[in-house]
UniProtKB/TrEMBL annotation:
Gene3D superfamilies: Immunoglobulins
Ig-like domain ranges (all copies): 197-298, 301-398
CDD domains according to UniProt: IgC1_Tapasin_R
Single GO cellular component term: membrane
Biological process annotations from GO: antigen processing and presentation of endogenous peptide antigen via MHC class I
Keyword field contains ATP-binding: no
Official protein name in the record: TAP binding protein like
Keywords from the UniProt entry: Immunoglobulin domain, Signal
PANTHER family attached to this UniProt entry: TAPASIN
Residues annotated as signal peptide: 1-17
Length: 427
């Protein structure tokens, strides 16, 4: 019993900050309805403005509490308003401090609230799911809220839309009982690299259940597949965790899951087919929530230049080869720097492109062929410039136009004439 208490201690971390503050967020209550959702019909989603008040968010020691104002409810409670009041000290929301200054930093906070139905509970009223993310910041979390009991009397107001009793200040009193979070929204990695997709969870000090289930799924181009699944007891009983890995090289650290609530998945030797949207679903008892992480595969191109011979009467062909890159989009440009100029300029004729070629590992190759006319003076530098999203600066390969070689046709003709005269004299 003592072991269980120690093990679950991480779900209720003590607040070591100098103080706490309130965070007030503008949200939408999202409800699903039935109607004509387009030509084929379907579900419609209605949105009602709501306010989410996160109470007692820990504030760092370097933060001035004088600049943070506590939440003040309306002087006259209004049953039409949707005011969700949430105490977040247990379980604590990781990195919730980024919400304190999102508005000052001109960062948009996405906040959506919807009613939630726990699996297997006959009475599921009073549960809500809150999805929070901050634009431009690696902060994303899904909270499951449970309404707190309110002592009711003849003066107790009832929220008109939800039918739930309000506190004396006109708020819906709730608490966070379970949350799933991720510290990254997207990650880019090269081929054959290893990557860690972050996902974790927290629950109250009194655990909702002793068993936790983690499932990672990959969704890409309309197709979904299970990548990894783990089920285990949080108290470490009943043997080893059950792990089902569908993708070779995928893994999840059971020890970190048990002791830190870390459900991050590692993928080794990435391939192009690993790219897509990964959905991390964590289930504890009757409750489950998700986080989404985008994985982008990238591979920088290799660039080379080949050139054909040039004579005095014909053009010279230059070929720029861009190979083994991913994703597909790439830009190839030709520039010329004559001996009398100081800055290169785009070549008048940008040449012709070959068709894209895809290799067995999913990467692509492309070639650009440029015909350099004989009128281009010797000493001119011709540059092929390649731009790709994996490159901070474009790659360049350069060659210099040389003086034309003697025309091989006249050399051959002269040789034949001399040979014929010599044979004629011999006769």
């Amino acid at each position: 019993m003592m072991f269980g208490i120690i093990l679950f201690g991480f779900f209720m971390k003590s607040i070591s900050a100098d103080g706490v503050a309130d965070v007030v967020l503008s949200c939408d209550l999202v409800e699903e309805g039935v109607g004509l959702g387009g030509m084929g019909g379907g579900a419609l989603f209605s949105r009602t403005p709501a306010t989410l008040v996160l109470k007692d968010v820990p504030v760092g020691s370097d933060e001035s509490l004088e600049t943070l104002t506590p939440f003040v409810p309306p002087s006259v409670p209004d049953p039409e308003l949707l005011l969700f009041e949430v105490k977040v000290s247990s379980p604590e929301i990781p990195k919730a401090d980024v919400l304190l200054h999102a508005d000052c930093n001109q960062q948009e906070v996405l906040c959506e609230i919807s009613q939630y139905s726990p699996r297997g509970l006959p009475d599921s009223t009073g549960f809500f799911m809150v999805s929070l993310s901050v634009d431009g910041v690696d902060f994303s979390t899904s909270l499951i809220l449970q309404t707190l009991p309110v002592e009711q009397n003849s003066s107790t107001l009832v929220q008109s839309k939800l039918g739930l009793p309000l506190s004396g200040s006109g708020t819906l009193l709730t608490e966070v009982i379970f949350l799933v979070f991720s510290h990254i929204k997207s990650v880019s990695a090269p081929l054959k690299a290893d990557v860690l997709l972050n996902c974790g969870f927290r629950q109250q000090e009194v655990p909702l259940d002793q068993e936790v289930g983690v499932e990672w799924r990959l969704q890409h181009r309309g197709k979904g597949q299970k990548v990894l699944e783990m089920k285990t007891k949080l108290d470490g009983s009943e043997g080893s965790p059950v792990v089902l890995g569908q993708r070779k090289g995928s893994s999840l650290d059971a020890a970190l899951l048990l002791h830190e609530g870390d459900a991050s998945m590692a993928l080794s030797r990435l391939q192009v087919e690993d790219e897509g949207t990964y959905i991390c679903t964590i289930s504890v008892g009757n409750f489950h929530a998700q986080q989404v992480v985008q994985l982008l595969i990238s591979q920088a191109p290799q660039v080379s230049l080949s050139e054909g011979k040039k004579d005095s009467n014909s053009a010279q062909t230059l070929s720029c080869h861009c190979s083994n890159y991913y994703p597909l989009d790439v830009q190839m440009e030709w520039f010329a720097l004559p001996p009398t100029a100081s800055e290169p300029e785009p070549f008048i004729d940008q040449g012709s492109l070959s068709s894209h070629r895809q290799h067995g590992d999913g990467t692509f190759s492309l070639s650009s062929h440029l015909s350099v006319p004989p009128t281009v003076p010797a000493g001119t530098k011709i540059t092929c410039r390649v731009s790709h999203l994996t490159l901070d600066t474009p790659l360049q390969v350069t060659t210099e136009v040389k003086s034309p070689e003697p025309d091989s046709y006249w050399w051959v003709l002269g040789f034949l004439v001399i040979t014929a005269l010599f044979l004629y004299q011999m006769i």
